[in-house]
Amino acid sequence: MLGELSLNGAVFFNRHYIYALSGYWHEQPLTPTALWVPAEGEITLVNHSEEADVDAVNKIVGYVPNKLFTLKENLAGEVASALLPHLPKTVPIGTDNETPAAMLERIDCRDISAPWQRLRRRKDPDEVAALEFTIDCAERAYEVARQMVEPGIPETEIMAAMLEEATFSAGEFLSGWGQDFRAGVPGGFARRQEILGGELIPLDIGVGVRGYRSDLCRTFAIGGQPSEEQAAAHAHILEVMTFGESMMRPGQSCAEFHTEIHARLDGWNGYAFIHHAGHGIGLDAHEVPRLNSHWDDTLEVGDVLAFEPGLYHESLRGGIRLENNYLITEEGFRQLSHYPLGLV
């Protein structure tokens, strides 16, 4: 990639990317870190004055982020200042989406977010295993939620219980979490508001562990008994999900995929389908490929997808969204998530 873009190297500040490239996991989210990957020469890690035993790194440069454990005001500037002396005099260099302003002011930087994402879209077996682990954590959280969705329970209580279970399952502080926990609407952050019988609650969570992040949605009928209208909409979404799975194969146009899913959902029984059909997952919440008619990606072997058809209308008392994760293979796909899709 560096040669194709005529770059002398790339510097990464996103700790998820740094872990994927070097194996170094920067646990402390309050302090920034950086990784310099040259086209030729030593790979350099910059972190907050701690020892790090990382085989994939040639040099470690420390900086002091605090005084008597009180953090300094501009930590992004501190890590940039520690890194700059180790960069080549020749420019330009590639940078990611978390590059500090201090870097941009002092050196010729070129954003490589798009080519970097394309480069890593094909997941290696260990990356698929990492994603399957996060999926397992999410599915355990859904089992907790399923047992809780009774009238009178605050949304925040459901969210907190899911977060607790996902954290216990991961065995460490999550690197990603969220995002939809609202009842009676298509989505949104949790409120102190109590959920009501007859409503639907779409729970859409991304569990991140060391940067790798699943993305699953399940919708539950509060009180355990969906209405006939809700049950009919749910059955239709399941049919569309099966149809979408039949299109999951290498070479499939993602714009066409979205168009076909949209045609089967939007307007059905007067309901709306208001978003993309899905997206890639990995180190970012949304990655290549994008199942969206605003892009025309093509499915490739090694892609890991989140596919999320849904229907929304006030008469449904919220909406129904179902989301599974898949690996694209030579033969078609392998489903990675297996938690039941039912409303109860």
Write the layout of secondary structure elements.
Elements: E1 9-12, H1 15-22, E2 34-38, E3 44-47, E4 59-62, E5 66-67, E6 70-71, H2 75-83, E7 93-95, H3 101-106, E8 109-111, H4 113-119, H5 125-148, H6 155-170, E9 179-180, E10 200-205, E11 208-209, E12 212-213, E13 216-221, H7 228-246, H8 254-265, E14 278-280, E15 287-291, E16 304-307, E17 310-313, E18 318-321, E19 324-328, E20 333-335
Parallel strand pairs: 1-7, 3-4, 7-8
Antiparallel strand pairs: 1-2, 2-3, 5-6, 9-10, 10-13, 11-12, 14-15, 14-16, 16-19, 17-18, 19-20
Helix pairs in contact: 5-6, 7-8
- Tell me the strand percentage band: 15-25%
Q: What is the terminal separation in angstroms? A: 48 Å
Give the class from helix and strand content and strand pairing. alpha+beta
Number of strands: 20
How would you describe this structure to a colleague?
By secondary structure, the chain is α+β, with helices and mostly antiparallel strands. It has helices spanning 15-22, 75-83, 101-106, 113-119, 125-148, 155-170, 228-246, 254-265; strands at 9-12, 34-38, 44-47, 59-62, 66-67, 70-71, 93-95, 109-111, 179-180, 200-205, 208-209, 212-213, 216-221, 278-280, 287-291, 304-307, 310-313, 318-321, 324-328, 333-335. The strands form six sheets. It has a six-stranded mixed sheet with strand order 4-3-2-1-7-8. The longest helix is centred in the middle third of the chain and has 24 residues, at 125-148.
